[in-house]
Here is the input.
Amino acid sequence: MIIIKIIINNEEKEVNLLNDYLFTKVFGEIGCDRETLYLTNTFTGKNFKTLRYEQNEIKGKYEGNKKSIVDVLVTMNDKTIVSIESQIGKQKKFHKRTHHYSTKIHSIFLTIGEDYENLPMIIMINFLDFSFHPLEDYHLIFTQTEKTHKEYSIEDLAETHYIEIPKFRKQVKKGNIDLNDPKIRLMLLLDKETPQNLIEKVIKMDEYANNIYEKAKLVLKNQKQYLAYIRAEQAEQDQKAMLKYAEEKGEEKGKEEGRIEGKEEGRIEGKEEEKIETAKRLKDMDFSIEDVAKATNLTIEIIKTL
Here is the structure.
């Protein structure tokens, strides 16, 4: 995993760039334009020149519409809209979520009464830390194609990218990588399991990769922002624990109640142990008891005893 030396107590911390909070801070804010443009052009093969950041909270036009929040939302110089998402936790129907976001973005950026010819192109880029599709390729691109004549496609409405980190890891293990390829360099930087010596090579070779690395360091040197990063990690762990428990419960359906309850208790105990270890680390880094409580959902009384 990427190692970043944090100024607090000079401790080296393992960092996941796909963490929701950190990904948004590195790519989704004004001042990150060059790196976001580079990321977009590298994975889409486009040649966008400039971008403008849009509000990443997408509200429906009508009262009661479901609110959507994306990590990064930008308008390119040719009016193409690009949404970039990082998703760590597995979602079986992730493509439906992506489609929902895409249609919502279309409805927002075409004003009432405007000619449909002005409907912008939407590009959805999804970095997934789970396997989504049975194909071996780690980078899949979907457009609208005619069912029988697949060579005919409509490419000026929507384009969706699914970039699967686990499949890329398999290519790395096989040695099927070329550091001269900018897409490979970015993939290595975004993968939490890339060895640090390889990260060092990447940031020496690639100015943009180095800038991304430095921005991540700058974000995490701020104590409040590091705490927000920890909260996002904890939330992801909680979600994974709940999904795992739900799967286990489904597998155990029909078996004796006592056995199911025993598994649930074990899961809860393990989850509490993780929170306690996180709380200890935050206390050692001089975070206040109140902040530690907010990050871990442990009570102040428990934290005082650690």
About this structure: Residues 35 and 275 are 34 Å apart (CA to CA). The mean pLDDT is 83. The radius of gyration is 22 Å. The longest helix spans residues 223-251.
